[in-house]
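Narrative summary of target 7.
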Amino acid sequence: MGKRRGTSPVKALTQWFQRRSFIFKFILGAIITLFSLVALKLSVRNHDNLFVASEIVHALGILILIYKLTIHRSCSGLSLKSQELTAIFLAARLVCSVMIEGDIHTFLDSLTLAATIWVIYMLRFKLNASYNKELDTMPLYYVVIPCAILSIFVHSQSLWPLLARVLWSFCLCVEAISVLPQLRFMQNAKMVESFTAHYVFALGISRFVGCANWIFKIYETGGKYLVLAGKGHLYILLILVAEIVQTFILADFCYYYIKR
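Modeled conformation, tokenized:
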């Protein structure tokens, strides 16, 4: 008679967690998030490096897609519209970066944009036979037009460089909801392809790190950023809201990703 195999610690912990109430899960998630923020703050001296880390993680997510498209020769599970939105906000951010900074952010955005354009090319032309167009149902103008209007509105009283500020706000708005077509695609498909899941999870980590940077800025300046928002600098409020919205959108997916 064979030995009875015991339940693995990971599986036992997962089963225990699943039996807890929603309130318990929410509180535990908040505690883990708080400890993660504290760990980032203590381990990263220059918090501006968090932006660089966020962009690197995003680039790694794109590399996962490139691996899938190159090795598996299939784009099943991928939303073309989500990639097009990604290219739009990266192009806008790259223009801003060239106009204002011209540093490591410019280099990373250039690489990520080039990789994203390659992914779009593969989806549209080379591997379009495996692209499920009928599942990619979110119209782009539902996202692009409201983002453009909102970006112009929050800078209606801004001074030079107005174009850079509008473009920066536009890319933040589009980036915040660029993953929605991909999530809608997965809902329509009623399944999550593994490489796509890895990619979206990488986006979630990227946005958490980026959002952490803004939280630290508010904390270190004693709420100065929020005071400026109240004095008419609406673009600051837009930045904070966009970061928080995108983080929460992706946090829900990351929860189910880890659970799976």
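The chain is about 75% helix and 0% strand.
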